[in-house]
Task: inverse folding
DNA sequence: TTCATTGCAAAAGTTTTGCACGTGC
DNA sequence: GCACGTGCAAAACTTTTGCAATGAA
C-alpha cells in the first residue's frame, strides 16, 4: 500500500497520520498473517528504533476503533490483528498456530431487537498440512 | 441437577468426582449466565470455605477438557464458562455485559482438508433492552 | 501405597495506566 | 498555546506453575 493511499484512508477515518500509525498499518496490510503485538512491534521497531511498544498498542487501538483493522482474539494468550476488514471467519491450527481466513455465512435467530455491531467466527482444529503431516492423535 | 446425575456424567467422562468439581459443575448448570472464574469461585467458596481459586481453575480445565463445559472467550478480559454444550452462538452486550445465547448455522468454505474441532460464534453490540432503554449513541 | 487432586504462594505474561515530553496545527 | 500523540516505567489483572499436603482407591 502506498503512502498516499494510507494518508487518504486515515483522513477519511478522521485519524491523525503519524509515522507510528502508518508503519503499523502498513505492516499489517503487507503481512496478512494476523500478527500479534510483539511481532508487529519487533518489525516496525527495526526501521524505527525509537518506537515504543506502548505506542504500538496505542496505534492498534486507534486503528481498531476506526475500523481500519480487526482484533482477532482467537489465540488464547494474545490479541492478533487483521487489516482485512471484510467479514470472514478465522481458523487457528492447534498444532502450528497458523491462522487461516475462510468465507462464511452465519444465520442466526433469537436476536430480534438486538443491534449487532460485530461478528466473529472462530474455528480451531488441525489445518490440512498438519493433519496430513502427522498421523498420531493428540 | 441431582448428585446422582452428576456422578453418572462424571463417570461416563472418566472424570474423578471431587466435591470441588461437583460444586463448580453444579453451579454452572444451575446458573447458565456464563459466569467467569471470579464469580464461580465467590459462589462455591461460600458453601465450601476451604476451596481455593486455583482449584476452581483446575476444575474448569478438567471439565472443559472432557467437554462437559465450554469456555466462552467473548469477554475481553476474562474467560467465562457455559454448561450448555450444544452448539450455539454467544452475543455480549457492550453496555450491560450480559451474554445471550442464540441459535445459529454457519456455512463455510475454504477449509477443505481441515479437521475442525471447535467452532465459536461471537457477536457483540447492544441487547434489545439496552438498545431501547438508552437513546444516545456511543 | 500410590497417584491424582487440592491449595497456597509466587511467577508469568500481556495489556493498561500515569505522567512527562514533543510536536503539529 | 493547546490538544493530541508518544514513550518510559510501573501497575494491573487474569491465568499458570511449583510444590507440599491431602485424600481416595
Result:
Amino acid at each position: 500500500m502506498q503512502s498516499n493511499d494510507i494518508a487518504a484512508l486515515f483522513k477519511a477515518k478522521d485519524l491523525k497520520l503519524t509515522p507510528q500509525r502508518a508503519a503499523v498499518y502498513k505492516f499489517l496490510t503487507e503481512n496478512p498473517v494476523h500478527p500479534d503485538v510483539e511481532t508487529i512491534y519487533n518489525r516496525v521497531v527495526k526501521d524505527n528504533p525509537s518506537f515504543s511498544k506502548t505506542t504500538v498498542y496505542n496505534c492498534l487501538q486507534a486503528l481498531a476503533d476506526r475500523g481500519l483493522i480487526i482484533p482477532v482474539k482467537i489465540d488464547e494468550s494474545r490479541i492478533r490483528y487483521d487489516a482485512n476488514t471484510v467479514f470472514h471467519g478465522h481458523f487457528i491450527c492447534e498444532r502450528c498456530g497458523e491462522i487461516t481466513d475462510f468465507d462464511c455465512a452465519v444465520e442466526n435467530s433469537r436476536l430480534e431487537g438486538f443491534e449487532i455491531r460485530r461478528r466473529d467466527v472462530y474455528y480451531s482444529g488441525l489445518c490440512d498440512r498438519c493433519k496430513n503431516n502427522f498421523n498420531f492423535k493428540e
The two ends of chain B are 41 Å apart (CA to CA). Residues 26 and 61 of chain B are 15 Å apart (CA to CA). Residues 16, 18, 36-38, 54, 57, 77-79 of chain B lie near DNA strand D (CB under 10 Å from a C1').
